[in-house]
């Protein structure tokens, strides 16, 4: 009997029926319909892969991340990490790791750059309430300092000609 791995990466079509024996054609049709995870070859960025688990390792400079499809997780190789993840580079593998639960985007696990709804960004952390002396900016979702004018410091600009602070 012919092993289906001999035909990986081929498209089962009428051309196979013409070039293969009728028995091989029907065996391949059966294998691919009963086992749809039989490899069609590694996906774009994969260096190595498996039929069931997807990418096992990535080509240089790409990031490895596990993607959930129903109850199954498969490895995928991406040029950058998706939202909610940050990239870590190691000599043997580049991986995407999850940001903290309250963080939408992050630079590292402990340094958030954008918080999820209901949280304010302050010094790389996501807080439900801003610390004393700071004001919650509902437009930028950041904690900002209050200037002498009562306006957040981010709204003040230095007037070079007069040497004092004026609203921008």
Describe the structure in your own words:
The protein is 11% helix and 40% strand. By secondary structure, it is mostly beta strands. The chain has a two-stranded antiparallel sheet. Strands 3-4 form a two-stranded antiparallel ribbon. A two-stranded antiparallel ribbon has the order 5-6. Strand 7 (103-108) and strand 8 form a beta hairpin. The chain is elongated and about 60 Å long.
Number of strands: 14
Task: Report, as a whole number of angstroms, the end-to-end distance.
Answer: 79 Å
Strand order, largest beta sheet: 1-2
Oligomer: single chain
- Low-confidence segments, given as residue ranges, are 1-39, 154-168
Instruction: Look at the helices and sheets and give the structural class.
Output: mainly beta
Overall shape: elongated
Q: Strand-and-helix sequence, N→C?
A: HHEEEEEEEEEEEEEE
Strand content: 35-45%
Mean pLDDT: 75
Major sheet summary line? 2 strands, antiparallel
Radius of gyration: 27 Å
**Helicity, as a percent range:** 10-25%
**Helical segment count:** 2
Mind sketching the topology for me?
Layout: H1 14-19, H2 22-34, E1 46-50, E2 54-58, E3 63-69, E4 72-78, E5 85-89, E6 94-98, E7 103-108, E8 111-115, E9 120-122, E10 125-127, E11 134-137, E12 142-145, E13 156-159, E14 164-167
Antiparallel strand pairs: 1-2, 3-4, 5-6, 7-8, 9-10, 11-12, 13-14
Task: Kindly list the characteristics that best describe this protein.
168 residues; mainly beta; two-stranded antiparallel sheet; 2 helices; elongated; disordered C terminus; heparin-binding; R-spondin Fu-CRD domain-containing protein; Furin_repeat; heparin binding; sensory transduction
């Amino acid at each position: 009997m012919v092993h289906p791995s001999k035909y990986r990466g081929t498209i089962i079509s009428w051309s196979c029926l013409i070039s293969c024996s009728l028995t091989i054609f029907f065996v391949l049709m059966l294998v691919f319909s009963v086992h749809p995870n039989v490899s069609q070859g590694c996906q774009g960025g994969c260096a190595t892969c498996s039929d069931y688990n997807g990418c096992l390792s990535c080509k240089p400079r790409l990031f490895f991340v596990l993607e959930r499809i129903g109850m199954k997780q498969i490895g995928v190789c991406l040029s950058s990490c998706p939202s909610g993840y940050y990239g870590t580079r190691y000599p043997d593998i580049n991986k995407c790791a999850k940001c903290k639960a309250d963080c939408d985007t992050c630079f590292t696990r402990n340094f958030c750059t954008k918080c999820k709804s209901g949280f304010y960004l302050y010094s790389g952390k996501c807080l439900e309430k801003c610390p004393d002396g700071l004001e919650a900016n509902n437009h930028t979702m950041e904690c900002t300092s209050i200037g002498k004018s009562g306006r957040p410091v981010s709204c003040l600009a230095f007037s070079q000609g007069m040497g004092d602070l004026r609203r921008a």
